[in-house]
Sequence to fold (787 residues):
Amino acid sequence: MAKVLMKGNEAIGKAAIEAGCRYFFGYPITPQSELPEYLSSELPKVGGMFVQAESEVSAINMVYGAAAAGARVLTSSSSPGIALKQEGIGYITNASLPAVIVNMMRGGPGLGTIQPGQADYHMTVKGGSNGDYQNIVVAPASVQEAVDMVMEAFDLADHYRVPVIVLADGLIGQMMEPVEFHYVPKWDLPEKDWALRGKGDGEKHMVENLVMEARECEEWNLAHYRVYRKIEEQEQDWEEYKLEDAEYAFVAYGTVSRIVKSAISQLREEGYKIGLIRPKKLWPFPQKAFDRWDGQIKKYLDVEMSMGQMVQDVAYACNDKHKIEFYGRTGGIVPGVEEIVVFAKKIMGGDK
Amino acid sequence: MSTQKICCAGFGGQGALSLGKILAYAAMLEGKEVSWCPSYGPEMRGGTANCHVIVSDEAIGSPVIAENAACLIAMNQPSLDKFQDIIADGGVIVLNSDLAQLHGSAKTDKIYAVPANTMAQNAFGSAKLANIILLGAVVQSVGVVRTESIEEAFAQVFGGAKEKFIPDNKKAFALGYTFAKGEHA
Amino acid sequence: MAVVFEKTKALTDLKMHYCPGCAHGIVHRLLAECLEESGDVKDAIVAVPVGCAVFANKYFNFDGIQCAHGRAPATATGVKRVQKDKIVITYQGDGDLASIGTCEIVHAAARGEKITTIFINNGIYGMTGGQMAPTTLPGMKATTAKNGRDPAVNGFPLRVSEMLATLDGPAYIERVSVSTPAQVTQAKKAIQKALEIQKKGLGFTFIEVVSSCPTNWGMTPVKAMEFVREKMIPYYPLGVYKDITAEGGK
Fold:
């Protein structure tokens, strides 16, 4: 298939359809509304179903039902709407159901701004619902990567029976880039014999959430964490950029990582030995990347469109909080290349 | 040049975003790396609308243009005032001279003042295609893509029922292209 | 030996945890019997609430899902849109449906979701221990309205059947009770009708059951049934509120 120029939001919609998703439940919010708009016209064409819910709360609970019924199902929103979905995400997680949730982040807190942000890192990576749990969080940095990651997200969700969150920012949703669609299933997935479809002549299926006995509830949680350990081992994903001779490494994800790459080009021209570790999944966090490069890196320069929500994970990954310097913009401001160059030079001094 | 950054700005409804989209499409058809990044806001019409188009031979880093733009297309006065400083030394400013005037000095002397609204009005009886006239001037003055690629982009963007728009778009493009050529002949 | 009575196979053999005099057990049985008699147990999926009926999925001998508080109509929407040919039922109490879940029930009804909702209205929060519900009658005592519900402070009860009957999406709405044998018979007929209409795909169906909660009302089961007849039903009149299958519609 030839490349087409598409907006991130619409490209994600098409990627979902290519990956076999036929159900979308959502609610409008800037800057992701093109995604439900696109799917409202495209899903019926492939025999799918689009429902505009009365709220984000309802939408995520519709997702819970559709996932329980065995469907590949998607919902999307932006920061304040994702905050509303957190309850449902917890239920879906607890019931071990697969679902994909797209968050086109904007600045917050509260109603915040509609401009792009990365300040939902804590909410999505650390968990914004109650209880002990993790969600897989993928973080695309381009429209093509958003497409690829959405397709992979459906496979990850079905394989591990967990919700997967696609954490992008408003810019990825709004910008157009050339994309192509090649869905290759990551696994040969088994039939969902646990799904609600009426018991027929067999045993009844139950999708449960209340575990009254504490011991039993602990067992449930431990079972989830056994899956999480497997995910941590198998699914870490990152990009290494110009690290071979690097003495300093930026750590950035999503849109910011692209701006950082532009900054690296400038800094390298001036002789600075600096590269980038870009987490492509934020959970599981790419510990292995830090294990690999930590020996030669003097300092990590964490740059985000937030007040430093990823810093603790970087500190944990390199096991030395003194090695981390942070630069961030908040409230919807996208940092420029120049200010990142200035920040980096201040850290590196004349160390070329 | 391996990377060119173009900023298109106007008020909502003037077609700044679609101007940038056709440019981006044409560049993609030439096999180049491209990004099209809009400002987005609550205003649907009448507010300011702008997009940043980056065309490159290599993977594009920041999709946002803060400086060193090869070209600014200013479709109205507020856009010119707001963005003229992001132009690179020796860059090109293409402005809709019906709605924008340069006051004082600019960072560049390569300025194409195109009376695009008047030209569109005269040719088509409405100002609707002023954006495509400006696009013609951009391709003539800055390059970025070939004329044939623009025509191919029209064919892709105006597919199916919209095909009837192609002849007027081609004509508007040619008007702008010829105007810019005459201006700096 | 001839079998004179047999418990419906649409219920499991688990011992229900409901209190003496509670209507849940009766309504569970009615729903189960209806499904068994129509041969639909194999195709039924129930969405259960947060509240006393949170374990209803264990008692019903067919597929089920435990929902977040108030969200059963949304979850059932998701199930039904995927499993279009199955019979999807939500079973909800008044705190769940008429308080935290008001938004979800109103919109599921407005969309005409082809599901059936069984709504147990006993005027109190049972599971959490007797707090005021949106359906608690004026003057009725609750642990969060110790001197009785005062409309000046707590506002007035919701009449859900009447409210939903104003919408175009519902196909059938009836309020029934189970405080007398005759009412039980009528309640079963109502549930049967709702399920038939769902099978025909005509729209949203809703059966409200005016019920009792002797434990949290602080009454004996017999007194509680009297209270249903003398106080609850006058405030929540029984009858059909909407029936698009009736002659001329209603």
